[in-house]
Design a protein that fits this description.
single chain; alpha/beta; 5-stranded mixed β-sheet; 4-stranded mixed β-sheet; 38% helix; globular
Length: 460
């Protein structure tokens, strides 16, 4: 395969998507001939920094390849780690290109707008003599089961709450709610408070509260979350940014609390169930969600928004409706991927059905042993095998916990088997280093709200 003049060798192609170009394969082929050193750093909250040295060609005939490579590299850093300021050194043309591409009216305008909103800072690209060094501040968090604890899990269709007494679950509740269609933040606030009070009624006291929430969380504040999508922007900062903190403090006063993205909570629950660290959690459902617990059992504070991380270099890759970009994870590791591949497998889906209902149709065919449905899941497994090697390059994770409705049933087993085959065949350097797995019974029993309850440490 050839992309921007770079020949990309691929041994294993998805049966239903032979044009798929794994981004890691492109990067390796590109770097094999690139000799001009450049450095890029991305700054995020609290002065934390992602920094890397890489190479480009720096010649007129490879200018397009250079631009594509640095574009995808920066986008990957932004959505894995987050950030609002890009530092560039070593090549003025790279700086000028990134400044144009990531401008408010550039091809990556969505990334500019999203990140500037999350970090409450104008998005910038600057040319410097030397980029700042990498600087992370991972936090040891979770796994605390002492005392009287409440865990709250805020999802898009239901909210769950768990009361723990010295590690034992004494109360569990799941309540249907409709946060995505309510514009009054008081609805969300009251739902959170009601859940907290319901759990508190089953405990002699409340020592700590942990929250798992959909969306991007910075310093215990949800900075961008679909849960509050209908809340007017002018109310977001005043009523939503600190909504969990207000609910906890208004209800219980000054007690330890922690608010974490639900992807990180899922990874933490996986680490607790496996009794090991270095866990990347991936949920394949409506979209692709991610979370990470590092080798020391710490939450990194990274975004881990894998739905927007590029995985496919093919110019014909499917467009993501929200960002307007192509080749990103959401279209490969979610129900959208199943729906995309179904017609290619000869399965016509009724367009009047919702995406979730279309997935169920394919799942039913898989249960019946339909080989066309199997081709869909095998193709997703091929995508995953290539992409897990890419994720390993970024996270150096030992375990990958694969969840979500796309991974359920026989289809999930087939995805996992094919991903492992591709990893072994095409990325032997990953052998014995990365272990994809499905949730076990212990993980299912633990649940995200119980894992959330373990977040804060009670000072003694």
């Amino acid at each position: 395969m050839n992309l921007y003049g770079i020949e990309v060798p691929v041994k294993n192609s998805p049966k239903l998507d032979p044009e798929f170009i794994p981004i890691l394969k492109f990067n390796r082929a590109f770097l094999a001939g690139a000799k001009k050193p450049i450095s890029i750093a991305v700054e995020r909250a609290n002065g934390e920094m992602a920094s890397c040295q890489t190479y480009i060609y720096g010649t007129p005939d490879k200018r397009e390849a250079d631009h594509y490579y640095v574009n995808r590299l920066v986008k990957t850093i932004l959505w894995v780690k987050g950030g609002y300021k890009i530092y560039v050194s070593g090549d003025e043309d790279t700086y000028e290109y990134l400044k144009s591409a990531y401008a408010i009216d550039g091809v990556q305008a969505f990334d500019n707008d999203f990140m500037s909103g999350v970090y409450e800072h104008p998005f910038e690209v600057v040319l410097v003599d030397q980029v700042p060094p990498a600087n992370d501040s991972p936090k040891r968090i979770g796994g605390h089961l002492d005392g009287c604890r409440i865990g709250f899990d805020a999802g898009g269709s239901d909210r769950k709450v768990t009361a723990l007494l010295d590690g034992e679950t004494v109360f569990d509740e799941e309540v249907v709610w409709f946060p995505k269609v309510n514009s009054d933040p008081e609805y969300h606030y009251q739902g959170i408070v009601d859940g907290l009070k319901s759990a508190a009624a089953r405990l002699p006291r409340v020592d700590a509260v942990g929250v798992s929430t959909a969306g991007v969380v910075i310093n215990d504040c949800p900075m961008n979350a679909s849960l509050f999508i209908q809340v007017p922007k002018e109310l977001q900062r005043a009523k939503v940014k600190n909504i969990y903190i207000r609910a906890i403090q208004d209800t219980f006063g000054d007690i330890p609390y922690s608010v974490i993205n639900d992807g990180d909570i899922s990874a933490l629950a996986g680490a607790m169930s496996l009794e090991e660290n270095s866990v990347l959690g991936i949920a394949m459902g409506t979209s692709e969600a991610g979370g990470f617990v590092d080798e020391n059992g710490c939450i990194t504070g990274w975004l881990n928004e894998l739905a927007f991380v590029p995985v496919d270099g093919a110019p014909t890759a499917m467009v993501d409706e929200w960002s307007g970009d192509i080749g990103c994870g959401a279209k490969y590791f979610s129900q959208d991927s199943v729906i995309k591949l179904a017609p290619r497998a000869g399965i016509e889906l009724d367009e009047s059905l919702s995406p979730a209902e279309k997935l169920k149709v394919v799942q039913a065919k898989m249960l019946e042993g339909d080989p066309a449905a199997a081709d869909i899941y095998t193709s997703i497994g091929t995508y995953l095998g290539h992409t897990l090697a890419y994720y390993y390059d970024m996270y150096h994770c030992k375990h990958v916990l694969l969840q979500g409705r796309v991974m359920s049933g026989k289809g999930g087993d087939l995805i996992l088997a094919e991903a492992n085959r591709v990893l072994a065949d095409e990325y032997p350097e990953c052998a014995g280093k990365i272990f994809p797995t499905l949730p076990d019974e212990k993980f299912r029993r633990l649940g995200q709200s119980a894992a959330a309850a373990s977040l804060p440490e009670i000072q003694k």
